[in-house]
Each structure stands twice: as structure tokens, then as C-alpha cells.
Amino acid sequence: MVGAPIGESSASVLEQHKENILPMPGGRSASKLTNTLIQSQTTKSVMIYKETLKREREHHEKMVGQLEELDDPLQVFIDYISWIHNNYQQGNNNESGLLNVLERCTSYFRDAYHYKNDPRYLKVWLEYTNYSDSPRDIFVYLAKKEIGNQLALYYEEFADYLEINGKTTDAEEIYQLGLNSQARPLPRLQRSYEHFKTRLESNTSTTNPNKRTGLELTQGSAIHDVQDGSRPNKKPRIEIFKDDSDNDQSVLKSIFDGQSASNDLGSIRSRIKENALQAKPWSGEVLRQKKNLERPNSSGSTSSSSSIKFQVYRDSHELNEDQKIKQTVCESNDGFVYTLINHPGKKSERVMINMDLLFLQEDEEITPEEMLAMTRRTLKQQQQQQQQQQYQQQRHTPIRTDESNNSNNTFVIPLKDENDTTLSNRPNSPTMTMFSKQANQEVVKIFNEAAADLNSDDEIERIDGVDSTTTNFDGFVTETIQMNGINNIIGPSLQVKETPPTDNELDDNVQSSPFIERPEVNDIPIQIIDNFDDSYRQTLLNSLINPIESYPGYTTIDIKIDKLKKFSELTTSDNKLIVKGNKNSIVDFCGEEIYCLRYELGKGGFGIVYLIEAGSSGQLKALKVESPCSKWEFYILNQIHRRTKIAYPESDNLFINQLELYAFQDESYLIMDYCNQGTLLDVVNHFKSHYGTTVDEVICIYLTKEILKSVEILHRIGILHGDLKADNCMLRFKPIEDGDTWNESYNKYGLHGWNQKSITLIDFGRSIDLKLFGDYTSPQFLSNWKTDQQDCPQMVNHEPWSYEADYYGIACIVHTMLFGSYIKIKPSHTNSTIQLENSLKRYWQHDLWKPLFDLLLNPYLPNDKKQPLVEEMAEIRQRFEGWLEENARKRNLKRSIQDLENDLTQVYRKRIG
Fold first, then answer.
1. Partner of 847 at 20 to 30 A CA spacing, among 249, 332, 371, 406?
2. In this structure, is the dihedral angle defined by the CA atoms of residues 214, 218, 224 and 226, taken in order, positive or negative?
3. Is beta strand 825-827 parallel, antiparallel or unpaired with respect to 834-836?
4. Distance between CA atoms of residues 3 and 220, nearest Å
5. In 3D, which of 703, 724, 727 has the Cα closest to residue 715?
6. C-alpha distances in angstroms, 109 versus 102, 269, 548, 766?
7. Omega before 628 cis (within 30°)?
8. What is the distance between the alpha carbons of residues 689 and 695, in angstroms, rounded to a whole number?
């Protein structure tokens, strides 16, 4: 124990709980530990204490979410772990979550060079080894990742572990390795090594090989002579499997075996999953009770009885008809529906609900709350369909005008007053009325007078010869609002049409407000933003807490470079290959490395993407040159990888990785990773040219699942891609490493090689960071660029849009793979939705594709709040994964991916020479 002296009362508290206190290598604060134990045990303060812990944990989690904005992000985890130590004296359990925090900390900083030899970070790893059943693997992993290789603490702890496990030779090698590396502090490491040799010599001198231990004696009175080599007959023991890797292979050989460390060590739970008892259905199992239970008899004495069996629940198919629970749906005289449940041998139970509605299918059951929600949703959809039909009818209703055609006529908003009889059937309000009848009439008069002035001469504006206020149909008024920005954040001025009131607002039971308000969704103001205005983007970048200039890989060069025009002259429309040796193809102004342009990968309205080769290493990368200079995509990619590394570290490869940005006055040079297997559009063209068909459906299902997963993650971290199409999705089919296996059966968790076969999204120039607009706004966007059929209908019609852009983009990609052509849509004949012009082939998986296109093409109803539909997308993705688990093997998915991978790799090798 460390800390200030404690009194007798504090000492007694610690004495009572000493068995439940996990000792720490550096000790614990006695005062903090005593205070924690007292608060956690006091009945009056236990709830307050739990609430305090909850708030403090939320604070630490919030700080973890802001790691990239801090100078020393490691200290956030150190404080978090220290807080757990002080408040959860038992160490890791479900309440403390210590192991989870340790794994997050070790995983997050494993590739951060400046933390590899930070003693604080190494101590976190060492604490993590305490919860592992194979600490040796972790020590070897740290050596391969060069974590702690300059710290004496690493070699001391590793050698101690080996010495305790009897591997003194390996322990001495570790000490020698640390001394040769001049690990700091070196004098302490030398002393530890000397103590180790002293212990080793002492153990060697005191060892007596002829000494007979107690384990060599058999039980009983007879003592066998073990000198003659004979062994007593013993009951054969079960030989437990023993891994010989630790004995046959030295530690240094494990470290320097030539294989680099895997980027993911894996969680402790995943490494010991074989030790967990797998759940299985119980069928007639019986919980055994203690035998010879003593029960008092009538005379007051006790008597033994046979054991009583506790019957475990059994499925209904194992029971006889007389043993089954029966339920009957009934209806009372008042019209209420209830279910009568008859339990064999018990009193009947009446449940005020129709239990038959809780079973959608034979093996699928829902809760009453889910049933209520589904009922309300169905009613809401029916109501909205009726509203849509009424709205369509009203659009064709002639406009009613008075005979004088006077636009200055006033109108009176109908409110209930003493002469109003249209609302007489409305039920009385359950609240107490605090106003008199006369006061109510005065309020009605004020509203009517205000409404009469809405169409006065000074309120009417003319835009291009048309009045800004026009009556389009009976009872409704639409108004064009000129918005000049909201608090100088909204961006350039935009025009928004206010939607007419819905039928809900005109319902007899709901009074409408007499005021015309700005469009809102669930009381969250809607911002209409031109996020693609360069000056507005620059305003957003200038408002960052951490300026973009501080991001790793960012470089500003305050000169004009004017190289894009010369680069564009190196290729033609037919030949994209750039001949080596051309002086104009050398890029020697992007840092210390010199690059050479090799191939033109793509061209857009503002720039060109090239394949470049590093002069020193020959490594291939992608270079995106834009004019004028653009920093936005570098910012978006930086944010994506920061957020995914914290929330979804296993999915970081789904998005192209930015390496460096060189921002000149007139041009920007963004260097990224290079994917050498082409895009999904290349996949479609490959199947057309080689087989004369569209992409195999099983490959379409697999790639669609990967696309859904990537967009789902983007929306969860607050990013809109904005330009999803087949040529912005790169294949990422990595080869399976030696020693790893790739199973024929698909694994939805990415195990057994399947995590190496995926996609990578590129081209985030149109992307939007929704976190820049706060949590209390609902931003929507208007685009002014030239649209095509791969843009969502909202963009094509120059209407505000948000998540529809990405959902429609997914539909475009899937349609291109399935049909081999760009998407075409048409309005539905039954309602106001849109649908595909092409029909799904009869032998396709309609139960997968139809719900997917229904969601992607019609994500929102007219009055829905536009929020990301991540849960709906996750549900559809899981359907795709379930289908793959059942059919991947028999549909030869693995073989199809292998063939496609080989073909496209060869095509790209030939293309770039």
C-alpha cells in the first residue's frame, strides 16, 4: 500500500475486504481505496455512488472519442485505467470493463512510433499480459512490433516470466538481448541480470538429483524402492495435450523468424473461445438434487427421503397433448380481445392481448411492444398513402379565385370561437381551463387580424414576374423563402419551397398554428447548404479546432506549381500509359521522395489521378492532382480513418488511405494507396468481354454485402460519400498469407481468410462531414454540378438531399453488376414511389434483391425525418450474410473469387507494363 498513513477505521475496512482487492505492482492509494469501499457498501449512498461512476465513465469515454485532438492521447487511456483501478478493486470484471479498455489502448497505439518506447504504454501491455493464458505470445508480439525494445522493463518482465516457467536458457538470452540493445536504464538491467545469474547458480548448487520427493512415494504403508528403476503400478493417467512450441523453439528464434507481426493480435476472448462451453438445446435434462434430504415428519423428528427431481423446461414437441399449455383467443362483451391461457394443473390465466399476433412465423416471436410498434407503423403508412393520394388529387383541382380577382383580399383562419360549430364534436381538453370565455374571444380576434394582414401589399414580392405568394390549391398557400444563410454558416443563398400542411394539421382534433414557419422536421431546424462551394468549404476548414495544417502528412507550399497541364499532355484518349524517361513525368516536388508518373488511372472535371512509382523503393502509389488546390478530400479521409480506428478498427481497409497532401497555391497533390485490381466497373466489363454475361449472382451478393457494410460504417461515423458508383469501388482481394487457410464456407465475421476479400471506396471529393453541423440541426444539401443518371433524383431535380445520395448510389452499383447497365427508374403506378425499369430475373434471389431496392430507391416517406437508416441497412446486410453462409460452398464462391482475382491482376499488369 502506498499513500498517506491511515487510521484504525480505514485499516479495518481494508482488512475486511483484503481478499477482494487485486494487488497492483505499483501499489494502491489506501485513502482512495477506503473511500471507494465505504461508498460502495453504504446502503444510502450506493445509488449515488453508481450514478457518479456512470458519469465519470461517460466522461472518460468522451475523452477517448477525442483522442486525435489531444497532444498526449495516451494519457487519456492512462487516466481511464487508473480510474478503474481506484473504483473497481477486484480488477477486471463485467462492471469494470478493464480488459476492454486495455485492449483498446494497446490496439490503438501499436503503430504509433513515438509511443513504442513510452514506459506508460509498455506498462499497459504488461498489465494486459496478466489476463492472457499465453503471455509468451504477447511478449514475442511486442518484440516484433518493436514495442518496448529500448526499455529495460520489457526484458526484465519477459525474463522473469521465462524463469518462473523453468526456461532459464531463454531467460538468459532475453537478458543478453536487452544488454546488447542498451535498453534504458542500463544499470538497472545489469543488476537484474546479475541477480538472475546468482539465483541460477544457487538453484544449481542446491539441486540433489538423488533426493526422493514425496510424490515418488505411493500411498499406504508399503514403500517401494525406487533405486532399482522399477515403478509401482499406478492407474494410467489421461495425457493432456501439450504444445511443444515453447520447448522446441527458442524465444529468440520466435522473434527473429523472419515473419512480421500481424497487425491485430486479437482479443483474449477470441483466443480462448475453445474453452467456452457451447450452448445447446436442453431436451429433458434434469437438475439433480442432493440425496437423503431430511424432512420433519408428523412427530417432529426428521426422516430421510429420496432425492426430488427438478424438471427442466422442455419444448412443446416433447410433451403430450395433456401436458401442453393451451391458449384461446376470446372476445369480451365490450369488444376487447384477450387470450385465455390454460396451464395443466394450474388456474387459467387471462392476458389482455391477442397472443396469436405475437407469432409472425412458426419459429419467430415478437414482443407486445414490437407488435404495437408494427401496428402503429402500418397505420402511419396507410395514413401517409391516403395523404399522398389526396395531395395528388388536390394538385389537379382548379384554383378558386373570387370574381374581382383582387390579390389583396384577406382571409380568416378558422379558429374555434363562440359561434363556431364545426369543432363542436371535439372532446374537451383534460386540463383545467385558466381563461375566461371573453379572453378566448380576444385571442381569436388577434389571430384573425394577424392572418388578414398576411397578403398585404408590403408583403408581396415579385420574382421573375411571379408573385412570391401564390394560391396553388384550395385551403393551402405555398411560399418561396429567400434564405441568406443561418448565422453565416449555411453558405450561399438558396431558395426552398415550403411544403403544404398535411392532413394531420387539418384534422378536426388538431388546431393548426396561424403562422407560416420555416420547414422543420421533429422540431429540428433544417439547414439547406451548398457544401460544394469552395469558399464555404474553406470556412469549415478554418473553423476546425485542430487546423488541417497540423494533420500528419499535410504540407503547404506557398508557390504556384502549374504542372497539371504538362501532365495531361503526356497521355491521349487512346493511350494512358506514360513512357518512362520523359522529363515531364518526374514529380520531384512532393517531399523528399521522387516519383515517376506511370499510368493515367482516371480523369475528372478538376483533376487527374495517376499511378506513380517511388524512385527509391519502386513502390506503386496513386496521385490525385487537382486544380484549383483542394484540401477537402484529404480532410475527409483523415477523419474517416481517425474515427474507424477507434470505433471499427477491423474495417479501416474499406476506405482508401491518404498518405500525404502537398497544397500549392494553384494545385494540390494527394498521394494515396494504390489498388491494383481495378474497380467494380472493370468487373462488369470483364464478365461482358470474356463470358458475354453479367456478373455471377453469387459474386454480386458478396460484393453488395461489402458495399452495404462500408456505407453503414460511413453513416455511423457521420460521413456522407455523395458520389457512390461502380468506378469508385475498388476491388481489394488480398492473397492469403502462408500458413493461413481460406475456407470454402463463408464466415460473416471475416475469419478463415474472408476478411482479405473485400472492396475499398475511393473518391471522397463530394463527401460531407455531418459532424461539422452539430447534433441539433438536420442539414440538407443542394448541388449545382452537371448530373447524370447515377445521381439521385433529388440531385437531378435540384431538390435538397441528404442520405438519399448514398442509398441511390448503392442501388446504381448493384444494378450495374446485376444487369450490366446503368440504372433506369420509373414512377410506380400504385403509389408515389419509384422502381426499377428492368425486372429481376426469375431465377435470382428475389427475397434479397427486392427489399434492398425498395429501401434504396425509397428510403423516406414524404414527411419522414431524414436520418441514417443504419439499422435497416444492417438488417438487409445480415440477410445477405445468412444466404452466403448457407450457399457459398455449393455456389463455389471461393473459386469464383480466385478466378476473378487472377484475371484482373493480370489485366492490370499488362496495362501498366
1. 371
2. negative
3. antiparallel
4. 54
5. 724
6. 11, 20, 21, 31
7. yes
8. 11
Q: Which helix (H) or strand (E) holds 643?
A: helix 632-647
Integer Cα distance of 802 and 874 in angstroms: 19
SS3 302: strand
**Packing angle, helices 152-164 and 186-206, rounded to 10:** 10
C-alpha atoms less than 13 angstroms from C-alpha of 427 in its C-beta half-sphere: 3
User: Which triple of cell numbers denotes residue 299?
Assistant: 412427530
Burial class (CB in 10 A: 0-12, 13-18, 19+), 587: buried
The rounded distance, in Å, linking the Cα atoms of 519 and 500 is 10
- Given CATH 3.40.50.300, say whether it is the number of domain 8-201+250-258: no
User: 841: which 3 cell numbers?
Assistant: 430475373
Long-range CB contact pairs, 904-907, < 8 A, 24+: 904/677, 904/678, 904/682, 904/683, 904/686, 904/731, 905/676, 905/677, 907/678, 907/682, 907/686
Phi-psi region of 147 (alpha: psi -120 to 50; beta: other; left: phi over 0): beta
The alpha-helical segments, DSSP class H, found in 406-468 are 437-452
DSSP state of 244: T
Of the candidates 684, 701, 703, 682, the residue with the CA atom closest to the CA atom of residue 692: 684
Length of the chain: 913
Inter-residue contact 141 to 251 (CB < 8 Å): no
Which residue is associated with the grid cell 463463408?
A: 746
Same fold, 551-672 and 680-907: yes
Where does residue 782 rank: exposed (0-12), middle (13-18), buried (19+ CB within 10 A)? buried
Measured over the CA atoms of residue 73, residue 75, residue 79 and residue 85, the dihedral's sign is: positive
Q: Is the dihedral of CA 714, 620, 688, 742 positive or negative?
A: negative
230's torsion region: left (phi>0), alpha (psi -120 to 50) or beta? Answer: beta
Q: Does domain 680-907 bear CATH number 1.10.510.10?
A: yes
For residue 645, give every residue at least 6 positions away whose Cβ sits within 8 Å of its Cβ, in sequence order, or none: 108, 652
Could you list the mean pLDDT of each consecutive 10-residue stretch along the chain, which spans 913 residues? Answer: 48 59 64 62 65 88 86 91 84 84 89 88 91 87 89 92 89 91 91 91 66 43 42 54 54 67 65 61 59 50 50 63 76 78 80 78 73 79 73 51 41 41 40 49 59 43 38 36 34 39 38 36 66 86 91 94 90 85 88 91 86 90 94 96 92 94 95 93 92 93 97 95 94 82 89 91 94 78 84 90 94 96 89 90 93 94 87 96 94 92 83 69
C-alpha R_g of the chain:
36
Q: How far apart are CA 106 and CA 126, in angstroms?
A: 10
**CATH number of the domain located at residue range(s) 551-672 in this protein:** 1.10.510.10
Instruction: Enumerate helices (H) and strands (E) in the chain, giving the number of each.
Output: 25, 30
Judge contact between 283 and 314, C-beta under 8 A.
Answer: yes
H or E element in which residue 139 lies: helix 135-144
Question: What residue spans define the domains of the chain?
Answer: 8-201+250-258, 319-357, 551-672, 680-907
